[in-house]
Design a protein that fits this description.
By secondary structure, the protein is α+β, with helices and mostly antiparallel strands. The chain folds into 2 domains: about 1-15 and about 70-110, no CATH class; about 25-70. The protein has helices at about 20-45, 50-70, 85-95; strands spanning about 5-15, 15-20, 70, 75-80, 95-100, 105-110. A hairpin with a 2-residue loop joins strand 5 (about 95-100) and strand 6 (about 105-110). The protein is rod-shaped.
Amino acid sequence: MLEGIEIVNQYTIQEYTIQGSTFTPICILFLVLTIVAFIIASIGVIIRVLPMIVFGSTLVMLFISASLYTSPQTQIYEVTLSNKISYVEFVDKYEVISQRGKIYTIKERK
């Protein structure tokens, strides 16, 4: 923390996000697997293999989708500012989430 910032309260939050760059190709892969499974089912060539294909592709999608979610922990601070700190310097280093009177809720910029 910069000099002139007094921490009133501090807590940690979890932010769950989906990584879009890996999610799109996985959805396309699942769509292709589903189309192939329906083609095999409509032809009726390998009826016994169809449940295994659908079940296997569903399991793969569940495992992959579980790895898509990231949960970084973010430190949130409730602080007060003194006259010793420049507000411009403060805003450069921290993101102001909200303000209640003289108490700022902030997190560090990434």
